[in-house]
Task: structure prediction
Amino acid sequence: MMRLTVDTLTDETNSELKRAVDGTPSVELAGGSGTSLTISGDDAGVEQLERTLWTRELSARQHGQDSLADADQIARESLRAAR
Result:
């Protein structure tokens, strides 16, 4: 099991990452403060979390929700950088 601290930069990005974690099995929120979240999970779960954020980003773009899509993109890139 790994623990990753993800610096999300904004409250909106932080919220989107939390929502994605809630919907991803084998990954959980282990803590956080300010614009950083600590995520705990196995490698497959973290990979699934990245895919979830990617899917959410694409869906938001298709529905004209660019701000939401940008937040999902930043969360995904921040997660990848933390790995």
